[in-house]
Design a protein that fits this description.
By secondary structure, this protein is mainly alpha-helical. The protein is built from 4 helices and 4 strands, in the order H-E-E-H-H-E-E-H.
């Protein structure tokens, strides 16, 4: 397959995904959920994640199909390491605050034990240190 053929297929599929997005919007506003289409159950809880996935898929297909240029310039590796280090530091602080205050964390039906935050503090602090350490050792390019 040539690249031109793949782009034409991406254009066609972007139309199909756009129609699926409109169908999901119609299902959610018309009150027709829960519904089973082609063996797939659609409930009101599953419509939002499906919408997010389909919008992301549409963006990728449009980008590839019409060969659009990205308006965002990629940050340098040093900036990415600094951002990762700061995010890991925030995660470590939140885990430590959870240990100090005794906050309960419930994921689905599972209550996450408090002792698990000790691992979160140690791992997140190490990843923060490593990211910031590597960022400081890099030369600006």
């Amino acid at each position: 397959m040539t690249q031109r053929t793949l782009r034409e297929i991406a254009k066609f599929l972007s139309g199909a995904v756009a129609s699926k997005i409109l169908t999901i919007l119609w299902l959610s506003t018309a009150g027709l959920a829960p519904l089973v289409l082609a063996g797939t159950p659609f409930t009101t809880d599953s419509l939002f994640p499906a919408m997010i996935f389909n919008i992301a898929l549409l963006a990728v297909l449009v980008y590839y199909g019409w060969h659009l240029k990205s308006p965002v310039h990629a940050p340098s590796e040093k900036k990415l390491l600094n951002i990762a280090g700061i995010v890991f530091l925030i995660v470590a602080v939140v885990h430590f605050l959870r240990l100090l205050t005794g906050w309960t964390l419930i994921v689905g039906d599972l209550a996450v034990p408090l002792w698990l935050s000790w691992f979160g503090v140690v791992v997140a602090l190490y990843l923060s240190y490593a990211s910031l350490h590597f960022a400081m050792r890099m030369r600006d390019k």
